[in-house]
Structure formats: structure tokens, C-alpha cells
Amino acid sequence: MTINxxxxxxxxxxxxxxxxxxxxxxxxxDMSFLEMFDVLNEKxxxxxxxxxxxxxxxxxxxxxxxxxxxxxxxxxPLEGVTTCQLxxxxxxxxxxxxxxxxxxxxxxxxxxxxxxxxxxxxxxxSGGFVSVNTGNAQDANNLPIGKDKADMAFAxxxxxxxxxCVAACKNASAMLFVSAKxxxxxLLPQGQPERESRALNMVAQMDAEGFGACTNTGACAAECPxxxxxxxxxxxxxxxxxxxxSNQEV
Amino acid sequence: xxxxTKTLTSSIGKKLLMxxxxxxxxxxxxxxxxxxxxxxxxxxxxxxxxxxxxxxTFPVIKxxxxxxxxxxxxxxFWGLYITYKNRQARPIGYAVVKNSSSVFSRNMAIxxxxxxxxxxxxMSDFWYRYHNxxxxxxxxxxxxxxxxxxxxxxETGYTQEAKKVESFNEEAGTKTIIVxxxxxxxxxxxxxxxxxxxxxxxxxxxAFHLFHGFQSAxxxxxxxxxxxxxLIKGIGIWIFAVLIPVGYAAMPLYFYFLK
Lengths: 250, 259
Known about the structure:
The structure holds 2 protein chains of 2 kinds.
Chain A: E1 3-9, E2 18-24, H1 33-46, E3 69-70, E4 73-74, E5 96-100, E6 109-111, E7 114-115, H2 118-126, H3 147-157, H4 164-168, H5 175-186, H6 195-208, H7 219-223, H8 231-246
Parallel strand pairs in A: 1-5
Antiparallel strand pairs in A: 1-2, 3-4, 3-5, 6-7
Helix pairs in contact in A: 2-6, 3-5, 5-6, 5-8, 6-8
Chain B: H1 3-9, H2 11-36, H3 46-57, H4 59-88, H5 103-106, H6 108-132, E1 137-143, E2 149-153, E3 164-169, E4 174-180, H7 182-189, H8 193-221, H9 229-258
Antiparallel strand pairs in B: 1-2, 1-4, 3-4
Helix pairs in contact in B: 1-2, 2-4, 2-8, 2-9, 4-6, 6-8, 8-9
């Protein structure tokens, strides 16, 4: 296949960028989207041109590093997969594909398609620790957890923190990410001691980072590669508003 | 900052205020529609004009109506402020966007602005005129035993201090009231096809705004559960996005085509 690419090129955070056109020949339908970029970059290096900078790590769909906004959708047209798990068979010969970085004031572009997502790390850090006893692991049955709760917590914990929710949201809101992180602990007994402070601090940090507010459009959940549900956002609203009323700080 | 200000100015708190005021305005829509259904009574405006007097004189209703006006303004401008802040969260937009959300949910501010313009027109059409302009008066004589009502338009230039003057004639067994004839004002206004069109189109904006807004308010409150969320969504669509806008739109259409 031959693929025409329009890729966002930007030297660094301070300069402005623009879409540049590339043509990639001999693309195999079995290549992943990132492998197609590898082929293009190799050719660019051979031609003494600058390769395109993009984020990637595990290439197994579990690390959350790849972050391409492909033809108007984070992680491209397939549902429930990251960019690294998107294959060229999802496109047709001769297609023109527009690839842009995540767009958010809280995710400044570092170079080309690479954005700075440390805002997410700061939100996680603001959530604080989970009180867990050290020493020997206790008997598993000491802490009974209902199957339904365990399943909901696990579904929330599937979030890989890639930022597709922010990229998809018209307000560049991080609510789906924060809601998944708050939910996975709020649903389990281990998360109870810091339950209130976690919700309050993570929301405060989310606001401080400059993410937008939630309009409940549902674009985040629709584009999430891990299919995190909007129910988590309702839970975050409950956790935050409940904690605001019941915590001891006046 | 006190805990309350901190909560209400957080991104979730700002939305909470939108949800609570929005739901209050939804209850207003229900009450306003039920009251105005009296426009469809074929009684020369007897029920409707009496209702207008009650709504503008009964103290509790007066207080609630001013709270309602304040909340409409708050909901509108707070919403525009949130929209403005949300736009700042993405200073550089995308070249290509393929949306996976509903067009209504993405354009609540535009729909809301249309509604604000509509409300200004609507309030100056009826509310302002009822309170500040020399409206025609109408006299209703009700035969108490039979309930028959005789309608007499007062001559132009007639005016009275009280909103409603009531008198009884015990010999004839009749009750006579003289009130401002808002019914005729409504009836006359809706002979203008442009106004009728504007009102009907505005009701589409109500429908689209509530199609997303009603269920969204509950999501913001954190009320999401497989047991009752389908019911909330159903009420939002069938009552607030269909039944209520259709009910309102029927009024100008009724006067234009049938009166």
C-alpha cells in the first residue's frame, strides 16, 4: 500500500508547528501504525532528513505511551485499541491520514507528536499513598471483597493513563482519567482510609493543571482504548461532592 | 477560601451549580406549561387571565418567580463562563476532528444562548407588556348557578388600579370581574407568522438543550446506576425533549392556525 501522511511537525515547545506531507511506499497491511512510522523515519534518516518524533514504549497496548490523534480520533478509528495495536489493514491503499499530537493546554507539545503528560503524574502523586501493612502478606480471605465491586475496581484500574480522554474531549478534560484513578481505590477496602482526601486532592490538582471541566458528552469513554466507563465520572462526582461535605477541614 | 467556595469553584462544583439550577428550571418548565395549557380553553381567556392575575399577585409565587428569573440569568452566564474557561483548556485545536459525541452535548452553550435571546423576546412580548403597558381590559360575568361566562371587552382607554376588580350581584346571581386581557395580547401576537416561527424554532433549541441537559445534570450530581439511569434518560428524552417543547410550540401554532 501507499499511504499519504500529513503529520504535525513542531521543533519544540516554544515554536509553532504545521502539518507536513509525507508519502510512504511499500506499506504492508500487517504493519502496525507505529511500524509504518518506523519505516518512514528510517527513510527520512537515510535521506538526511529529520525523523518524526513520536512516543511509544511497550507496543503491546498496555503502557499508555503512544499518543497519536489519527484522522480526528485519538488512537485512530478502531475501538478499544491503542495506536500501537492499530494496523495498516484498517486503512486503504492511497489514503491520506492526518496525524496530530494530543491537544491540551495541560499537555504542551515537546516535539512533533510528543506531548508532556507529566500533569497526569502530578495528579497521581496528589492522590497520595494507600495505607498497606508491611510485613508478611496477610491471608487473602482476611479482606472480603464482593465480586461486583472487585470487577468494577478492576475495570477502572485498566486505565493506562494514555490521555486519549483528554485528547477526545472538547474541553480537554481529564475527568475520565481522574475518575478511573479515584474509583479503583474508592471501591476497595484498601482505599478507604484516604478515600476523601484522595478525591479532593486529585480534583484540585486536575484543576490546577489547566484541564477543562466535564460536559458529559461521553467522547472520552467512546475513544478510550481501555473502554473506561462514564459511570466512573459519576462516581468521581459523588466521591468529590461527598468528601467536600463530610471531610473535617473547614 | 472556605470549604464551600472551594467546592463550588472547583470544576465539579461549577458543574454542580449548573446541574442544580438547570433542574430547577426544568421544574419551572413543567409548571409554566401546565399553567399555560389554560390558553387552549375556549372561554375567551377567562381561566387564563385569572391565572395571570394569581401568578403576578400571590406573594409566594412572586418570590418564586423572581428567584426563577435570577436563576435563569445565573444558569446562562455561569454556563457561558464555564464554556469560556473550557475553551482555554485547548488553545490550539485539531485540523481534523471526528466526533464520537452527540452534536447537542457539544453545543449546549450555543443552544443556551439561543434560549437566552428567546427569553428576552418572550419576556418583552408578554411579561413586560403585562406589567408596564396599557393593556386592554376585559369583563367576565359568570352566572354562578350555571357557570356560564359572558365576555365583554372594555372600551379602549379603560383602566383600573387593581389587577382584578371583582363584584357580585346577588339578585342576578352573577359574579363580575374585570382584568387585563393578556389572552387577547397572546392571541394577537401569534397572528404574526415570524413570531410564531421564532417561537417554534426556539422550542427546538429547548428540546435539544434538554435532550442532553436533563440526564447530564444527574450524571453531574453523581446519580448514575443501571437501575434508575435508564428511567432518567427516558424522562429526559420523552418528557423534557419531546412532550414539553411540543406542548409549548402548540400554543403559537394554535393561535395562528385556529384562532
